[in-house]
Amino acid sequence: MKEIVLASSNKGKVREVAMMVEDMGIRIIPLSETAFDEEIEENGSTFEENAIIKAKAVAEKLNVPALADDSGLEIDFLNKEPGIYSARYLGHDTPYSIKNQMILDKLAGVPDEKRTARFVCSMALVLPQGDVVTTTATMEGRIAYEIKGENGFGYDPIFYLPEFGMSSAEISPEQKNEISHRGKALRQMKEKILELE
User: Fold this and answer.
1) What single-letter DSSP state applies at residue 40?
2) Global pTM value
3) Which residue out of 23, 37, 70, 76 is catalytically annotated?
4) Chain segment 37-46, per-residue pLDDT in tens
């Protein structure tokens, strides 16, 4: 496998994935550089189902190996909200500063031990002949009491990592790749790709 189309045009995600598979001699092609122009409806009920839906749509249309991920934040106190709706929570166009403040408000007065949360990432690789390979990984932490940090994006500034004593928006990108849900899921995926060779 020399090339994989990543079912995303998110520059940060493309860079992250490309960096991690560089040593395998695989070139990651962002969706924006392909002829794929369809709207994919993510109507799965789990992160894994949504990742498969995205990768399948791209693999079938372009007849290439396609990799997709679906990820989000699960907060135990809020019955695992926002979950698979993390990106769409309070509406697609709502800035994360507002989403993050809303979550902090919902957890006002909730003690540390009940603020447990995790980021979840499911990845799916779909090959042109229809084979599907999936991985899922998590990064455990807690919801912080305030918004802190400039390094991350999305919910990172309110996701507190007890082992670092910081939010996931305060640790370095290198540290984050080591422990993040996406980093772990991608390392598992690399092992599975090697088994396919």
Assistant:
1) P
2) 0.91
3) 70
4) 998 998 999 9
